[in-house]
Amino acid sequence: MPRNRGPAPIVSVGVTQPGLVDVEQAADRAGGPRTLWPVAAPPDTTAARAESDRTQPSNAASIETGARAVGLAALAAGRSNRSSRSGPVRKPELRIDLRAASDRELLARACGAPLEPDRPAPNWSIEASDWFGRTPAELAHELGLTRSAAQRLAAALELARRALAFATPPPPQVRCARDAFELCRALFVGVHVEQFRVLNLDAKHRVKQNLVVSVGSLTASLVHPREVFRSAVRTNAAAVVCVHNHPSGDPEPSQEDLEVTRRLAAAGRTLGIALLDHVVVGRDEFVSLRERAPW
């Protein structure tokens, strides 16, 4: 009877030559004949590869095309995820009536800041000060803006200043009461109540601002010195001229007009801002209180 050799041991098989599997050691250890098992050689794919290269794009081109497809798919998936998380993306509204916007709303849009109850500058208006002369640091401090918002606003103001320099004639110069009358007479047309205006002048008596500081009744306009000189202080005015109308058409000054003028002149001396004149405007004529009752 043949001897029972037991189970054949587990051996490692390695490839030593192309097309042949070396089992000599396995045969020796198992006690069997040494036999080399032929392995079919891989087919020659040179011709097939050449044919494929002629009919299909190169691997680099295929990889590039696949990468683009993967990138586009990822981009689409990202957009889809963003849309599902935060809803549809809103584009800025371009049809905005800026002429109807308030000064504070325009200010917020110019500096890119959200419009909040206390920011920017709850009581701010375009007539509040000489904003063309402000630095970003001053804008940030006075309006409660961030540094980047103040820089954007300063850039917008500088751009506006340069645009106005080409389209705006030099400011008028007020040298006498008639100059003030000619400057304001058209502004009083159709006004049926007393309106008190202040011309803030620089050192050469050029008009920096022409503001309405008080509106009264049919026969009276109550004005306080602080209302007259507030804007003058903010704009560093060197002098002011006050102008108000009489809706009746008669420019003859009242006793109240004389008393108000004396108080304004005294306040101007205290502040170092001269009151050059107070002009009362009628229908087509005017009266200079400096000539009528010098102070």
Explain the overall architecture:
The chain is of the alpha+beta class and 295 residues long. Among the domains are: 98-167; 177-292, Cytidine Deaminase, domain 2 (3-Layer(aba) Sandwich), CATH 3.40.140.10. It is 41% helix and 15% strand. The protein is built from ten helices and eight strands. It has helices at residues 24-30, 46-55, 59-86, 103-111, 136-143, 147-167, 177-184, 225-234, 255-271, 289-292, and strands at 14-17, 20-22, 37-38, 195-201, 207-215, 239-245, 274-281, 286-288. Strands 5-4-6-7-8 form a five-stranded mixed sheet, with helices on both faces. Strands 1-2-3 form a three-stranded antiparallel sheet. The longest helix is centred in the N-terminal third of the chain and has 28 residues, at 59-86. The protein is elongated, with a radius of gyration of 45 Å. The chain starts with 13 loop residues before the first strand and ends with a helix. Residues 9-21, 33-40 and 70-85 have low confidence and may be disordered.
What is the strand and helix layout of this fold?
Layout: E1 14-17, E2 20-22, H1 24-30, E3 37-38, H2 46-55, H3 59-86, H4 103-111, H5 136-143, H6 147-167, H7 177-184, E4 195-201, E5 207-215, H8 225-234, E6 239-245, H9 255-271, E7 274-281, E8 286-288, H10 289-292
Parallel strand pairs: 6-7
Antiparallel strand pairs: 1-2, 2-3, 4-5, 4-6, 7-8
Helix pairs in contact: 5-6
Strand content: 5-15%
Q: Write the CATH homologous superfamily of the domain at 177-292.
A: Cytidine Deaminase, domain 2
Total strand count, please? Answer: 8
Kindly report the spatial arrangement of strands forming the biggest sheet: 5-4-6-7-8
**Uncertain stretches:** 9-21, 33-40, 70-85
Average pLDDT, rounded to a whole number, is 74
Secondary-structure-derived class:
alpha+beta
Question: SSE order in H/E notation?
Answer: EEHEHHHHHHEEHEHEEH
The top level CATH class name of the domain at 177-292: Alpha Beta
Please bin the fraction of helical residues. Answer: 40-55%
If helices are DSSP runs of H or I spanning 4 or more residues, what is the number of helices?
Answer: 10
Rg from alpha-carbon coordinates: 45 Å
Q: Main beta sheet, described?
A: 5 strands, mixed
Mass-distribution shape: elongated
Please name the CATH architecture of the domain at 177-292. 3-Layer(aba) Sandwich
- Fold-level CATH name of the domain at 177-292: Cytidine Deaminase, domain 2
Distance between the termini: 150 Å
